[in-house]
Amino acid sequence: MKKVYSLVLFLAFLLMLAACSSGTNTPAQPATNDAKPAEEKKDTTEAPATKEAKVVNIGFSGPLSGPAAFYGENTLSGVTMAADEINETGFEVNGETYKLNVVKLDDKYLPNETGTNARRLVQENKTPIIFVPHSGGIFATQVFNEQENFIISAYTSEPKVQEVGNPLTLSIPPAYSAYPVPFSKYQMERFGSKLAVLPTASQYGKDWTDTLVPVWEELGGEVVYEGSIDFSKDTDFFTIVTNALSKDPDVLFVGGPSQPTALVIKQARELGFKGGFIIMDQAKFEEMEPVLGGYDMLEGAVGTLPIYTSDAPGGQVFKGKYEEKFGRIPTAEGAFNYQTLHVLVKAMQAAGTVSDPKKIMENIQAGIDSLEDDQMVWHLTGLDNGRFNWKPSATAIENGEFVIINE
What sign has the CA pseudo-torsion 180, 185, 186, 192? Predict the structure, then answer.
């Protein structure tokens, strides 16, 4: 019995020795053989941390449904495309890496909806910047954006947006007040002095008319017909175009969303109109061309130069990337908003903040100056009273070609 007991004690001793041996060997291994693997494991846990950058929410309130939906989507496409590019690596401000999250809301082109959306974006998403692509919505948000402390990135050529004196409004496209003089002179010299007015019935169309008509008359022209078209309701333009043409105009002033504007032009040509067209800058030649089956019906029309013809350093690069991403040619809405978001991010970096709209606005010029060549889609030269300065692009169509007509 003693032998058995001694044997059990001996075996227990061996087991204790083995346990002690394995306990001393385990911590010794990482310090020697597994030192490099241990560092590699640390590196792989840190790598995602750089990807998990802090997020800056960028707001968008525009028409994503209804008659102006295509216009709203064009505007939004430039914002999202720029955000996707920026997010590939993120951007650094004061040693912190950030990425962008675009929060989009549909306002159906209704100013009251824009105001509601803007408040929601600020309260729920803390957006320091909100893109708004129509003048009615911009005016609605200018009432409170200083108090709520956010920048309105305003895509409208309405010059009255600057007259409000709102220091947190950044106006993106050229003001349409630059167009009436060259447009009117060209049309009078080529076609004559009698003008029929048929723009969109929106406030934007009314403001455009109020700017164009005095210029036309000061240059010796006559307005023989004044009307407007509500593109949200009207789909048959025969009657109103017939009434306008009954006054024997030399030139028609038309405009609004591109597709229905093209149908107004088509109706006029089918009714025998041989004169010229002044086309407000909302309608784009490149979007009307597919509706009209070419540029023949647009012969003698004046409007804005298609952005896909841009000779700016990043113009053709942008065109290629945009077509690959969206499967269509870009318009000014996409291009200018794309370039604007790049400017705003550069301004954040120059300001040293992603959350202080006042400091960001103070550094917009620094943002422009810091743009890389492939981000310069069109010639952006500076900032004047809260609006970007761009190279002028008033254009006429002659024999299917675009001809610059700036004074």
Answer: positive
